[in-house]
What we know:
Layout: H1 2-19, H2 30-59, H3 65-91, H4 95-121, H5 129-156, H6 161-170, H7 174-184, H8 186-189, H9 193-216, H10 224-243
Helix pairs in contact: 1-4, 1-5, 1-6, 1-7, 2-5, 2-9, 2-10, 3-4, 3-9, 4-5, 4-7, 4-9, 5-6, 5-10
Amino acid sequence: MDILLGILIPFIGTILGSFIVFFMKDKVHSKIEKLLLGFASGVMIAASIWSLLIPAINMTNGGWVSPALGFLFGLLFLTVIDKITNRCEKDSRKPSMLAFAVTLHNLPEGMAVGIIFAAFLSGSAGVTLASAYALAIGIAIQNFPEGAIISLPMKASGSSKLKAFIYGVLSGVVEPIGAFLTICLTKFVVPILPFMLSFAAGAMIYVVVEELVPEIHEKERNSYGIIGVALGFVIMMVLDITLG
C-alpha cells in the first residue's frame, strides 16, 4: 500500500494543478508562476542530489564511473525527448500538442519514482521509504504547475473546463504507469541501480535547466524565481536528510 501511494503521489500533483482550471479565468499570475517554477526547480535539484546521486555513489562504495555515465545518459535521453517534443510543437501549436509534449517528458519522471522505490524494495544502502517518498513529493510539486500549464491554455482555446481538466490529468497518467512497470522489473533493474538512479538524476536536472529555468526568466525578470529555488531546495534537502 505504501508503494502504491508513493507512485501515485506525482500523479496527484498533476491532478491538483489541472484542477486550477475550475477556479482561474485565464492563467496563473506571472509572479506566482515564477515562484512555483522556482520552487519546483529547487526541489528537483535537491532531490537529484540527496535522493538519487548520493545513494548511487554509496551503492558503488564511492565509485564515480557508473553514476557519472548514468547522469550523462539521463541528460542525453531527455535531449532526444526534447527534440521530439519540439518537433511536435512546430508541427502544431494546438494545446493538445503541448499536452502530448508534456506527457512524453513525464515518462522519465515516472521511471525515476519507480527506480527509487525499486531500490528501496531491494534493500539498497542509502535508500529508505522516506527518501523515496521525498522524491515522489518533489516531482509532485513540479507537476502542479505543469497540470495548470496544460489545462489553462486548453480552456483559453475554447475547450470546456471539464475537457481542459481531463487533458491535464491525462498528461500525468504515464508517470504511475512508468513507475509501476519499472518496479515490476526490479530484478532486472537492481544490478544497474547506481546507473539508473543517476540516469533519473540527469533527466531531472535537464528538465530544470532546459525547461523550468528559462520559463522563470521569460518576459519580466524579478527575484521571485530565485526565492522559489532557494525555498524548494532547502525544504527538500531538510526533508530528505531528516526523513531519509
